[in-house]
């Protein structure tokens, strides 16, 4: 056996809607645990907010805790500890409300340990979950447009439970080569991270009724990217369907290059080695500015 642990929160989501953001923090943590082959067990929270003497900050705190509670009850992950850090602000105002979630899970068998990197050329790339037109609070919105506004992505707790159950069942059957949750950055970032972690590329032709920016960078919740051998891919699809989870084979793992087409039109074409170099040098580049 093994323990799986993660910490998660997106302060932008909580800033836009504290209750939804609190739910998402717990759900993203659970997704990470399941993607590593573990069963989510319990959480601890680290509630970072501004001055609770200000009504708007007190409201953020109250609603974020409500969202965390709702998600924990739905997923069966009790809060077994935590701490609170308040009055985090300066002359410009309070920090984004940031209820960090630490979650622990149990991997019942070491054979179930799963990582996010693609493992072999020719494996099927499978996307589980529904992608919607949701860019509010996203990395894309912040980086490209310089704003954090609108509504964060919605999260359906029952859909989240079904997704987690489906992926964990597929992992325990030995069908899954890699698993990665979709969160900050959306589909494109998760796909690139799976490529970089495995040192492999992918050829994806995704048919979806969305604009390319929504499809690639929207941060819809309750989604997981898997890879599986060609012989196991349809079994994964069948398991997902049995849990009521949308799933589709959208491409395959290949050597060296990441290529993505959305509705037949090329959207991304990049050498994985170059992407990895850019990623590894990101912090030194920022420090050097």
What does this protein structure show overall?
This protein has 289 residues and is of the alpha+beta class. Helix content is 39%, strand content 27%. Helix 3 (55-75) links the parallel strand 2 (39-48) and strand 3 (79-85). Helix 2 runs parallel beside helix 3 (55-75), helix 2 runs parallel beside helix 5 and helix 5 (157-172) runs antiparallel to helix 8 (233-242). It is globular.
Cα-atom radius of gyration:
19 Å
Low-confidence stretches: none
Helix-strand makeup class? alpha+beta
- Give the proportion of residues in helices: 25-40%
The biggest sheet, with number of strands, parallel, antiparallel or mixed sense and barrel status, is:
7 strands, mixed
Along the chain, the helix and strand elements come as EHHEHEEEEEHHEHEHEHEEEHH
- Strand content is 25-35%
Q: Write down the overall geometry.
A: globular
- For the biggest β-sheet, the strand order reads 8-10-7-11-9-12-13
